């Protein structure tokens, strides 16, 4: 590695340039956020591990997501299961409201009868595979007692996840205008709203925290018998899908996540696929047709998988060359060994390896004006962080707007106790006479120069 050092008031910064892994492209200017246009009002492509966005179009415009809203319901149900509030075998009794939702013509439903009893797993399957609105309402009521209270949870979770351009009025994504006297949040003209960025934030949280959701969303179809109707997944990109296969829309590695459609929302799709250990999430909002939302998703996923790679730039436990130790002030030892305890990766355009550096920044609360760590320091303390810095011309961003780079904590590898006053006093005397001696020697050398 090539080593570059620079010192700032925040502490010590080291820049480490990587050697070329594959040559050929050199310095490359790629507009990663606008490589092509799409048949969609809004769109986004993000790599899941790093949260790096490599394509965006109107990503912060709030639009109706239709049934993609159900990803929040999926998240909150899984959260409740993990919290022990109920389990997959818990029996849910269909309420009058859930039965009303089952009666709405032109919607996806599994025809739940009032008083009908189904397990959480059955209802979740109907929601994730067939976008069953009645099943979704039944699950929302199971979590919160009523859909109105559940919607409050949806909006609270959105804020918690950092979804700044979202607002929910129901659990399903149906237009409020269809709910008649059952409207409980908002007005008759309201629908749920999410931006493409917020949709991707939600999808990323869902697959990272509760990957079991993919076991449901990846099911192409379920024969009649599970419910009284055949449930064919609206996601035509699933491998083996009866509609997508003859149309050439199925996509290797794609296992979710959620489609959506209303007159106002148009055709929407949040897709996710994994290849060679890399998982991407794509969002298409307000596309023209059922088929076009999948065609545009293919473009996005192909762009990500064919042009970018996830590279490990620092291994777990690696010690940064040139900064094996950090100077310590007022400690029994004068230096502290530090290391990164996890691997640090970045998602980069192929051939741009030389355009990435590492920046190591010490915690300004833990260092003095000279950049030395102040004792005492306990082993395992995060004394700074290591950031991946891109020096090329491409404009990248991250799914969370306050994130500027991938980073990991720099960890103290041993305890450093604070030195006693006598040790510090003797050390200052030695340093004084050492400096005096250096001055004398330099002066003598000056006589003969």
TrEMBL record:
EC number(s) recorded for this UniProt protein: 3.4.16.4
GO molecular function: serine-type D-Ala-D-Ala carboxypeptidase activity
Keywords assigned by UniProt, alphabetized: Carboxypeptidase, Cell shape, Cell wall biogenesis/degradation, Hydrolase, Peptidoglycan synthesis, Protease, Signal
Involved pathway(s): Cell wall biogenesis; peptidoglycan biosynthesis
Domain of life: Bacteria
Catalytic reaction(s) noted: Preferential cleavage: (Ac)2-L-Lys-D-Ala-|-D-Ala. Also transpeptidation of peptidyl-alanyl moieties that are N-acyl substituents of D-alanine
Gene3D superfamilies per record: D-Ala-D-Ala carboxypeptidase, C-terminal domain, DD-peptidase/beta-lactamase superfamily
SMART domains in the record: PBP5_C (SM00936)
Keyword check for GTP-binding: no
Positions of the Peptidase S11 D-Ala-D-Ala carboxypeptidase A C-terminal domain: 308-418
Similarity field: Belongs to the peptidase S11 family.
Role noted for this protein: Removes C-terminal D-alanyl residues from sugar-peptide cell wall precursors.
Stated name of the protein: serine-type D-Ala-D-Ala carboxypeptidase
């Amino acid at each position: 590695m090539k080593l570059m050092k620079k010192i700032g008031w925040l502490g010590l910064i080291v820049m480490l340039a990587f050697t070329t892994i594959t040559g050929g492209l050199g310095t490359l200017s790629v507009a990663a956020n606008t490589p092509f246009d799409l048949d969609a009002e809004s769109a986004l492509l993000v790599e899941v591990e790093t949260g790096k966005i490599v394509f965006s179009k109107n990503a912060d415009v709030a639009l109706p997501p239709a049934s993609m809203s159900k990803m929040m319901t999926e998240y909150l149900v899984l959260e409740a299961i993990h919290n022990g509030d109920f389990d997959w075998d818990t029996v849910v009794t269909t309420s009058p409201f859930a039965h009303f939702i089952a009666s709405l013509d032109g919607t996806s439903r599994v025809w739940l009868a009032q008083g009908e009893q189904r397990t959480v797993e059955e209802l979740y399957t109907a929601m994730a595979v067939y976008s069953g609105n009645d099943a979704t309402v039944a699950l929302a009521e199971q979590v919160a007692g009523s859909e109105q209270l559940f919607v409050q949870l949806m909006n609270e979770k959105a804020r918690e996840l950092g979804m700044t351009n979202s607002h929910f009025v129901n659990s399903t994504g149906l237009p409020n205008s269809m709910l008649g006297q059952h409207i409980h949040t908002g007005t008759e003209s309201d629908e749920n709203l999410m931006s493409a960025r917020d949709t991707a934030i939600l999808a990323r949280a869902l697959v990272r925290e509760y990957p079991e959701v993919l076991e449901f969303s990846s099911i192409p179809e379920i024969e009649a018998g599970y419910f009284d109707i055949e449930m064919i997944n609206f996601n035509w990109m699933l491998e083996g899908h009866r509609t997508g296969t003859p149309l050439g829309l199925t996509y290797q590695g794609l296992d979710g996540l959620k489609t959506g459609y209303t007159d106002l929302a148009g055709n929407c799709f949040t897709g996710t696929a994994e290849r060679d250990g890399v998982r991407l999430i794509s969002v298409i909002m307000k596309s023209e047709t059922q088929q076009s939302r999948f065609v545009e998703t293919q473009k996005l996923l192909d762009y990500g998988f064919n042009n970018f790679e996830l590279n490990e730039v620092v291994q777990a436990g690696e010690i940064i060359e040139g900064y094996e130790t950090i100077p310590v002030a007022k400690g029994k030892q004068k230096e502290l060994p530090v290391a990164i305890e996890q691997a640090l990766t970045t998602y980069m355009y192929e051939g741009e390896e030389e355009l990435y550096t590492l920046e190591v920044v010490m915690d300004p609360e833990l260092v003095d004006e000279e950049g030395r760590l102040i004792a005492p320091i306990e082993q395992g303390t995060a004394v700074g962080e290591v950031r991946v810095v891109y020096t090329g011309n491409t404009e990248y961003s991250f799914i969370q707007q306050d994130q500027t780079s991938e980073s990991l904590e720099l960890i103290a590898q041993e305890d450093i106790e604070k030195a006693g006053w006598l040790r510090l006093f003797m050390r200052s005397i030695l340093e004084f006479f050492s400096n005096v001696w250096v001055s004398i020697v330099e002066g003598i050398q000056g006589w003969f120069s």
